[in-house]
Design goal:
With 205 residues, the chain is of the alpha/beta class. It is built from 7 helices and 8 strands. The structure holds adenosine-5'-diphosphate (ADP) and magnesium ion.
């Protein structure tokens, strides 16, 4: 993935915020890359540009030989639904669904009915014992593992995690980072954080 001359300006009623200005970045096909910066420095904005959640004001995101924001809109939806797995600080799980159905959700979006993968990722993140639990019955460390499983289930090429350990204690933080590190052996994991110590400990870059 190549990011070229990427800028994002937010215009509100009262002010203009240059959240990103002329960003250049080459990301490898696998490994663990940390993007570190203080609060308000534009990390989430950058994540939204990489994941196709929001559109840059100028510049390009190039994957292979395709420019993400120059093609038809439906390509962008396709990219978002199949290429990127997103993980958030507050997990973004659906409370009315149990663990299994939360993980299944991305497959429903792309009409994939091969559900064997769900049990594989459940095993991988070690949450077999809570497979049919409701989301509000499990701990925050378990919730983040469910969110990771959900990001993995599409077999996406890139996992983007925005402050994935922000709400976790140090024990669960280690579990989550060890898991993301393992995952980064065969795909790209981009972790956004303000925690420089974890970045030093876990990052390839
Ligand atoms: P970080 O994730 O590093 O904390 P953000 O990307 O959320 O930073 O924000 C970068 C800057 O852009 C901040 O000054 C923030 O206030 C501003 N910003 C973010 N989203 C919006 C928005 N939707 N409208 C206006 N300003 C925004
Ligand atoms: Mg943020």
């Amino acid at each position: 993935m190549k990011i070229k001359h990427l800028s994002k300006t937010y215009k509100t009623k009262y002010e203009v915020v240059n959240a990103l200005e002329d960003i250049h970045l080459h990301l490898p096909e696998k490994g663990m890359v940390f993007i570190v910066g203080v609060s308000g420095s534009g990390k989430t904005t950058l994540m939204n540009m990489l994941s196709g959640v929001d559109i840059p004001s100028s510049g390009e995101v190039i994957i292979g030989d395709k420019s993400l924001y120059k093609g038809p809109k439906k390509d962008l939806f396709g990219y978002r639904n199949s290429y990127v797995g997103l993980i958030f600080q507050d997990y973004n799980l659906i409370e009315d669904l149990n663990v299994y159905d939360n993980i299944k959700l991305p497959l429903d979006f792309i009409n994939q009915t091969n559900y064997e993968i769900i049990d594989e990722v459940i095993k991988k993140v070690d949450i077999e014992e809570i497979k049919y639990s409701k989301v509000n019955e499990i701990s925050s460390g378990q919730m983040q593992r469910v969110a990771i499983a959900r990001a993995l289930v599409k077999d996406s090429g890139m996992i983007l995690a925005d402050e994935p350990t922000g709400n976790l204690d140090s024990k669960n933080e280690k579990i989550v980072f060890d898991l993301l590190k393992e995952i980064s052996k065969d795909r790209l994991v981009v972790v956004i954080t303000h925690d420089e110590d974890s970045a030093k400990l876990y990052s390839d870059r």
